[in-house]
Design a protein that fits this description.
By secondary structure, the chain is mostly helical. The chain has one domain. It has eight helices and no strands. Helix 2 packs across helix 7, helix 4 packs across helix 5 and helix 6 packs antiparallel against helix 7. It is globular.
Length: 318
């Protein structure tokens, strides 16, 4: 269930870090394509031309990885829905059943993110570009008032855009994804199905979103405190372990090999421990928020309500 919560996006944050080791040659042979005899510094243009294929390959791989993670996230939103609704977590079975709905949600996510990036460019990029073309930045001291006004408006517009993005994304993943799952429709059809209910209960939806923000703040604070204590507990033995590995590396060639292997092993163990802890800690949070969304929607969407309360007739439905 921790894997489901992670890829469904309830607590996961993805970060990618890539580093390219720098190597140097020794001996009497000098690479004349990089170092000239009368210039101790490498030709940056030549270095860039050598690295360009690797840069392009890395960029393509990163784009492919991002698209793959987007697709996995989209499918796992439905797997989380199935797991909470049925009380059983079967990733393989749900993955086979939900790829169609996940693909539709994936396409919507791509379109939505492109629109948000365009709006971000309009809100932030265009004003900055206008100021730059007008020469305001070259004489910033003479235009303090204008800069303060424009930047203040940009910040307000940016936060308004962030709020709008969160509201739309939350409505889709909390209120439309269950309809997509039960009726096997796309986002647009699910919206048409739920829009009459939303029009009649705008205040209720606003209260739901406000309560979700409040709960996210409170639970995020609690989870953050617990994670901080866990990090401190892991930090002490981890520092001692890696210092020991560094000490072994300084003993010679064999020690360097052993030290590197110990550091790799320690890093893997530390990652597994931290992922297991944060995953286990986030499972009740993910289940709570998904349950909160289902019970809110179930009281207004008859097909879902019939699954949540099979023995109780619902007075409200769509």
């Amino acid at each position: 269930m921790a894997v489901v919560a992670f890829f469904a996006g309830e607590f996961a944050s993805y970060s990618f870090h890539a580093s390219f080791p720098a190597g140097g040659g020794g001996g009497e042979h000098t690479n004349k394509s990089l170092v000239a005899l009368d210039n101790p510094y490498p030709d940056l243009g030549e270095v860039f031309r050598h690295l360009l294929p690797w840069i392009i390959a890395g960029a393509v791989a990163l784009v492919v990885l991002i698209f793959l993670l987007f697709y996995v996230h989209a499918v796992f939103r439905f797997i989380l829905f199935d797991s909470v609704l049925t009380g059983r977590c079967s990733i393989r079975q749900s993955w086979r059943q939900r790829q169609n709905q996940g693909g539709r949600y994936f396409l919507w996510l791509l379109i939505f993110d492109v629109i948000m990036m365009l709006l971000l460019f309009v809100v932030v990029g265009l004003p900055l570009l206008a100021l730059w073309r007008a020469g305001i930045f070259r004489n910033a001291g003479e235009h303090i008032g204008l800069l303060v006004l424009v930047i203040s408006l940009m910040v307000l517009a940016f936060f308004a855009l962030v709020l709008l993005s969160w509201v739309v994304a939350t409505i889709v993943k909390d209120l439309l994804v269950p309809i997509m799952a039960l009726e096997d429709v796309g986002v647009a059809q699910a919206w048409r199905s739920y829009q009459p209910t939303l029009a009649q209960a705008k205040g209720s939806v606003a209260a739901y979103l406000g309560m979700k923000i409040l709960l996210a703040i409170v639970l995020g604070f609690v989870v953050g405190i617990i994670s901080l204590f866990a990090l401190l507990i892991l930090l002490i033995p981890s520092v001692a372990y890696f210092l020991l590995a560094f000490g072994i590396m300084s003993t010679g060639t064999v020690g360097q090999v052993i030290g590197v292997l110990l550091m790799l092993l320690g890093g893997i163990v530390l990652f597994v421990l931290w992922f297991g802890f944060t995953g286990g800690l986030s499972v009740p949070v993910a289940v709570f928020f998904q349950s909160y969304a289902l019970y809110y929607l179930g009281s207004r969407y008859q097909r879902l309500g019939a699954l949540l309360w099979p023995d109780q007739p619902l007075a409200v439905g769509t």
